[in-house]
User: Fold these one by one.
Assistant:
Number 1:
Amino acid sequence: MSVGGGFTSLAPVRAPAPEVPAPAHADASRRPWQATAQYGVSPFVNSYTRPLPSYAETFSGPGYYTPPPKSSVWATLALVFALLGVVLSVPALLAIVFGHIGVVQTRNNLMRGRGLAMAALVLGYVVVGFWALLLTAFWLSG
């Protein structure tokens, strides 16, 4: 039987911590982090702290969002006039003009609607081309 009443100790035996000698030229005006920086260890990094999160982690939670850019009114108007131009033919000319304005506005991604402007340009040019071919055919035949 052992000395402790039959039970053995489960706690590990630790050796005493080594003593670190104080620097010879301790300056009272130095801040604590400056005094420990000479040893290469920051007093703010220990087993209870973790590294600071990155900027993206810090500002990606709720309440921090980037609002979407505004839509280009010219691009929307260009598509409307392009669709009207399919039936009436004259608004297709305005669709081409407004489509080019919409493309210029959305060039540097500060505004949305580049796809609308491009679709209006394509549709406007197709409609104007169709009507130009149709009028040329009537003029040549008659």
Number 2:
Amino acid sequence: MKTYSALFEHRKVTLPAFVLLFCGFLQQSSFNQKDFEKLAPITGTWVTKRSRGDIYETWKRTSKKEFAGLSFTLAGVDTTPLEKVRLYITGSEIVYAPVAIGQNDDKEVLFRLKSIEGGRFVFENLQHDFPKRIVYDFKTNDSLYAHIEGEVNGQSRRVNYPYKRIQ
């Protein structure tokens, strides 16, 4: 009876761990090169108008498996870089990897693609402070709605970037 009890106790401990591990696998998304190609409309230059200076994103294709992006503000004649981004596919993952200028020791923060719905791409990193999600939604060939979201001081926060293609 003692042996059965020890085995039963062991099962009670490992069953929840197994369930959590299995659920983690279910949440993992698998993408391929065809999915990555759906991001091709990002190439070009985009602008969103802001009172403190317009924000620009410019993207180019650097290889079959990678895009490179740069965002900056332009206020009058002053240009201020905001971040550099690598958007790439590795194995079955598509990764959005920004380097925010002057943050995170100028190291990439990795956001993995979680879903594609039409022209809407949701990248996520729940361990990051803010944002936790980055969303790109291609509405038309010349219209891109992006936003970042997460929590700041326990409050939900979302910042919208309605971009128009200029090039």
Number 3:
Amino acid sequence: MDAERTAGVRAALDRVEREREQVVAKRRAVQRFERRVRKLAAQSERPPAGTARATACGAASVPAATRRDDAAGAERRRVRELFAETIRPHSVSDVNESEPLAVTIREEFGPEVATALSPEAGSRFTPAVKEAVVSAATSRQRGLDGMRRALDAEERSLRAALASLDECEDWLLRADETPLSGLGFDALRQRHETLADHREACDRVVRERQRHLNGATHHTAAVEVDHRFLATYLYEDRATDYPVLTAATRMDGLCADCQRAVRDHLVRRV
């Protein structure tokens, strides 16, 4: 027997497990980022016009916002630093690659938050900016939770298919130990029927897998992960995007070949 028939499904399970570990680690990183941003102080929307200072000619009004804006600018820089420390290592394959930090922020949190945190957007770290960042981090965690649930569903689908295919392959291995020439008519007929059952099981694997791929995991009303899109993403660098369907088709083909051989022997026994 050729173990390659189900090797793709086993490789898919390994891929799912690695992706789930990355998703869980990223979710923790986003959570750490959110908690640390919540501790940062936000400045009021409207800075004070100025304060009075004694001069040789009397009292004069001087800007008091400069020192506050410098502090606010430091808070915004700190948000970008926190993102680089916590989330970026889980967002890019190489933290030393040339992708600008602003691009990574936009990919994770969207263009509005990326613009709000941009150094060119101004220096004040207002409550509105802080709330936008915290809200984006919370939403990202929900998205990652949905991804994890979709990966769990993918694992269940793969394991269910593998159980059926392994059962078929185990039977074929045992049956192969007895040559067809050593079987009587009734035994040959029973083997033909058993092969038909296994072919039906392969067909059922295909139907159930297609049903899974046509569905989606709903984490919340706003978070949905399409299973077919997920499978394409997970297995795009593999020999096939559809490891279960490929394995089931191969197993069904083997059973069909075995059935033909059994029928040839049955005809000769009549």
